[in-house]
Specification:
The chain is α/β, with parallel strands linked by helices. The protein is built from eight helices and six strands. The strands form two sheets. Strands 5-4-3-6 form a four-stranded parallel β-sheet, sandwiched between helices. Strands 1-2 form a two-stranded parallel ribbon. GO terms for molecular function: GTPase activity.
């Protein structure tokens, strides 16, 4: 999460490319990030003793469903099931969702991206998640980032944009690429 005031401050100093979300900032400064309590075994201690109860995390995320916004949902195409948040619709409410699949640079070279998009749409239908668009990108190379940016700009209609996704799905790298394109 990046506070808008922090973003504006960095933007005014032309340092927005070096802006990190709070999780990445903690990691960069050598601090261990908290874990969600329900993912640990009984009696186990989280990173550095920091534990966030799942209900607290859910409450923080529920604020998204109470706002009118566009949600950009980041998933790892190489680990879709591992990066898919089962309760995503509860988190985003009735807000429109654009699904962005990351790490396409790690797919076999002759992979037809149109088929990957169709596969994602098929899986999303089975999981009963409607999306307004599906885009595939490489945060590493920047491939197809412009397609995702254009889809976001088109769907935004003046709404705030929230980027959500599981850990290591590529949210921070995507946001950095997004901000580079918006300059």
């Amino acid at each position: 999460y990046v506070r808008f005031s922090n973003y504006l401050q960095k933007w005014s100093q032309r340092l927005h490319r070096k802006l990190l979300c709070s999780r990445c900032l903690d990691l960069e400064q050598g601090q261990l990030v908290p874990v969600v309590k329900e993912v640990m075994a009984e009696g186990e201690v989280g990173f550095g003793g920091k534990v966030v109860p799942a209900d607290v995390l859910a409450q923080q995320l529920r604020t998204i469903s109470k706002r009118r916004c566009l949600v950009v949902y980041i998933v790892d195409v190489l680990d879709f099931n591992g990066s898919f948040i089962r309760k995503i619709r509860q988190i985003v409410g009735k807000n429109p969702v654009i699904l962005v699949g990351t790490k396409i640079d790690l797919l076999p070279p002759k992979t037809k991206l149109e088929l990957v998009e169709k596969w994602l749409l098929y899986i999303l239908r089975k999981k009963k998640l409607r999306v307004v668009n599906v885009k595939l990108v490489s945060n590493e190379t920047g491939k197809h980032i412009n397609h995702a940016v254009n889809a976001i700009i088109e769907a935004r209609s003046g709404m705030d944009v929230f980027v959500v996704g599981a850990a290591n799905a590529g949210k921070s790298r995507f946001i950095t690429r997004l901000l580079d394109r918006l300059e």
